[in-house]
């Protein structure tokens, strides 16, 4: 119970917790995500080999664009209106088949746009893995201390490199089916991935819903091994619902 209360405190102080984690990830200067490459991401998930022509990036601060990126407009994530989550199919003793879902609103991010209204490469999203909560404190504590090793690897980070399916600025109230391509870092592993996503402009805000499936072993994640878990599908799904507002 002490561990659960500790993570709730982190959630309440999400921006500070994310900044304190101190992770740096790559970013590149002021290039829109469509102009930098012509990837052929025919599938959603890990892209191996990675598409040719993706930008190479310099380091950036948590939840921010790098200093050398010049954005015509900038949106920052509104944590209280956003959510990141994992979904895993499992079979539990005395329960049966169930879907484990862990959620957090401890999200920081910045999405830049160029003069043409298109997203900039190296926009960045960070999720504090220490704050994930499901319907079971036992599961949360095990993932925190063992599977995720959240103290050693506190953040999951996505750096945008390309967007497929968006050739013009988002129109207010219109939803676009897009693919987000970029670097996903979990634990100490970074992979080029493609997310299936929907993006829309709702008034002043940017709204994005995205999901991706991958195998736990792709990111060096050891599946939980405890007596109560009879079986576990090692295909993991990550999703995020993001609302971002114009930066002040």
Summarize the structure in short:
This protein is mostly beta strands and 248 residues long. Helices cover 12% and strands 43% of the residues.
Describe the structure.
This protein has 248 residues and is mainly beta. The protein has one domain: Lipocalin (Beta Barrel), CATH 2.40.128. A hairpin with a 2-residue loop joins strand 10 and strand 11 (189-202). It is 12% helix and 43% strand. It has three helices and 14 strands. It is globular and about 55 Å long. Residues 1-17, 19-29 and 36-41 have low confidence and may be disordered. The strands form two sheets. Strands 4-7-8-9-10-11-12-14 form an eight-stranded antiparallel beta barrel. A two-stranded antiparallel ribbon has the order 1-3.
